[in-house]
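About this split. The held-out portion is used to measure sequence recovery: a designer receives only the structure tokens and must propose an amino acid at every position. Recovery is the fraction of positions where the proposal matches the reference. Here is one held-out target exactly as it appears in the evaluation file.
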């Protein structure tokens, strides 16, 4: 199994750990300390050695930050995690904060007492974060204190070792472009901008540029590494040789000098000492590395990670790989849903469903000679009221049966060498009340609206987000998460800069892969989410129109539970879309199945509404 069901949250230790952290404040000369979810690579998914937020509080979500002051401990989370937070932390020690509308800088501006000194680990915060925090303390006469050592690590006695996952080569067949060409393109751009070097600080960008993959963090196949690319076309990659065998080292030697990660600061100081202009991404580079440049006399130039947009705009090899991966994954999902639909209500648990889906993906991968490399995130497997917890993680103590008369939400994904998948289906277990079917249909209307959208050049995620919500808004409800996130190519299942959300300002460009996942959640009762992956197709002229229009192409092919659809709530156009989608599912997935019973089930599941 790629997923564990052990309880990792330990709220019972929250008080003693917070008190141990506070005990260091006087010696450090601080009044508060920030504990972010991110590691020193600013990643969403982090190794066990960097799970500081979870260790301190018990909260296991993938986004958040804790502010510990002398009198308070506040866990800032977004709308995905408000319910989970209440369940996972000691409410007598921690209070909840709003990561979106009132994050730490805003909270500090309103609440920090005069002269407040906030301690930061300079490896865990970016320059952009530092500026916001400094501005928030200005009126109170406060200041930021950059600490030499992380005081939390000093009290974390059983902290795990840093990971040493093996590195592999992503071949040109899957990458589409040779690494040397990617490096040359970046070097040309550096020369044009009169820059001597750029720091590549995001591991997924390092993996994409050098066409390598790794195994350092759960479910995200990039190695924890940084790189420097120079205007003359040379490069340095900071990657532990204990992760690279002879073949990978020989491959990398043709592209860059491989150095230990611990040498990054010294190399930056060396390259910056003659006043070199070195580019960094302000949202990715930790303060420690920015300071290494400026204190050595270099000129720090803030840019956007040069790999970010090219990585988001998939080339033809990456798109073709994703299409193939999703067909394979669709076959696995169909076999799983067939098994689930034939199980007696009350006979399958949330954990058993997760195990069966992983087994099905493994079996189909073996049959199609494209093995399942990993899951792309811990499967969200929630029945009834658990489905209302947006990022519910089933554990042995919370596991429950899938009972008749309720909905079951399963949000899962897979990592294959040719693509990353992410799919959510909400299905009926027995006969479900009409009200739940109504909300399912309203969510479906939003998903169809995004899938069928046509839009001109310059359209952003914030422009399309309301399309997914309007039917729900008319019913007086909403959902507290974005409608869609970017997805990598055998990389992170969450990839920017493209999103579909209220604050998403990146324009859509051809080749960008996104999720399309509206939902609705009624705490303590039920939750609904329907998710397909889509990608931005090249614009086309519409007959009789004035402008070429972009559209989304669907990647995910798997039945949507027709038993939960209230047909009269759909427009004729929406019914046509659903029926055409199901016809495509049947046409594309049937040739990948051999079991006659599964084929018969698929025919029924994709019948016209």
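Reference sequence for scoring:
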């Amino acid at each position: 199994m790629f997923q564990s069901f052990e309880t990792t949250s330990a709220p019972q230790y929250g008080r003693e750990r917070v008190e141990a952290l506070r005990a260091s404040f006087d010696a450090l000369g601080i009044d508060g300390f920030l504990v972010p979810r991110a590691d020193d690579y600013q990643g969403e998914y982090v190794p066990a050695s960097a799970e500081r937020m979870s260790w301190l509080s018990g909260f296991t979500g993938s986004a958040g930050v804790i502010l510990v002051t002398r009198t308070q401990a506040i866990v800032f989370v977004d709308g995905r995690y408000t319910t989970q937070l209440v369940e996972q932390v000691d409410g007598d020690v921690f209070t909840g904060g709003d990561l979106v509308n009132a994050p730490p800088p805003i909270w500090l501006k309103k609440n920090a007492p005069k002269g407040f000194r906030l301690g930061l680990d300079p490896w865990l915060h970016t320059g952009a974060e530092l500026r916001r925090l400094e501005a928030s303390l200005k009126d109170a006469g406060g200041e930021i204190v950059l600490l030499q050592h992380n005081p939390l690590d000093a009290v974390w006695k059983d902290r795990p070792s840093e990971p040493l996952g093996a590195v592999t080569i992503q071949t040109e067949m899957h990458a589409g472009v040779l690494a040397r060409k990617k490096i040359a393109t970046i070097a040309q751009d550096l020369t044009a901008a009169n820059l001597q070097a750029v720091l590549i600080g995001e591991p997924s960008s390092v993996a994409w540029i050098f066409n390598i993959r790794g195994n350092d963090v759960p479910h995200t196949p990039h190695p924890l590494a940084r790189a420097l690319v120079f205007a003359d076309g040379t490069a340095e990659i900071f990657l532990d040789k204990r992760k690279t065998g002879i073949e990978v080292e020989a491959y990398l030697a043709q592209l860059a000098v491989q150095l230990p990660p611990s040498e990054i600061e010294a190399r930056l100081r060396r390259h910056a000492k003659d006043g070199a202009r070195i580019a960094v991404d302000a949202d990715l580079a930790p303060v420690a590395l920015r300071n290494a440049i400026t204190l050595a006399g270099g000129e720090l130039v803030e840019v956007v990670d040069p790999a970010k947009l090219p990585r988001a705009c998939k080339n033809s090899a990456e798109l073709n790989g994703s299409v193939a991966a999703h067909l394979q994954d669709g076959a696995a999902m169909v076999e799983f849903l067939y098994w689930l639909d034939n199980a007696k209500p009350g006979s399958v648990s949330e954990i058993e469903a997760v195990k069966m889906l992983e087994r099905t993906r493994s079996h189909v991968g073996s049959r199609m000679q494209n093995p399942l490399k990993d899951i792309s995130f811990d499967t969200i497997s929630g029945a009834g009221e658990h489905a209302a917890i947006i990022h519910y993680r089933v554990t042995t103590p919370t596991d429950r049966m899938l009972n008749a008369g309720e909905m079951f939400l399963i949000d899962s994904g897979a990592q294959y060498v040719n693509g990353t998948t992410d799919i959510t289906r909400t299905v009926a277990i027995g006969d479900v009340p009409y009200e739940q079917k109504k909300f399912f249909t309203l969510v479906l209307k939003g998903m169809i609206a995004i899938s069928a959208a046509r839009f001109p050049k310059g359209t952003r995620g914030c422009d399309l987000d309301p399309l997914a919500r309007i039917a729900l808004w008319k019913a007086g409800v909403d959902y507290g998460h974005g409608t869609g996130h970017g997805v990598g190519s055998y990389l992170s299942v969450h990839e920017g800069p493209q999103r579909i959300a209220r604050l998403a300002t990146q324009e859509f460009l051809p080749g960008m892969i996104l999720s399309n996942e509206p939902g609705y959640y009624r705490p303590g009762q039920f939750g609904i989410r329907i998710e397909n992956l889509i990608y931005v197709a090249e614009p086309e002229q519409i007959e009789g129109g004035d402008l070429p229009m972009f559209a989304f192409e669907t990647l995910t092919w798997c039945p949507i539970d027709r038993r939960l659809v209230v047909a009269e709530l759909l427009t004729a156009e929406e019914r046509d879309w659903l029926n055409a989608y199901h016809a495509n599912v049947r046409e594309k997935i049937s040739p990948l199945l051999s079991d006659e019973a599964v084929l018969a089930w698929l025919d029924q599941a994709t019948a016209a509404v």
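Annotator remark: The chain has three domains: 11-155, 168-311, 313-601.
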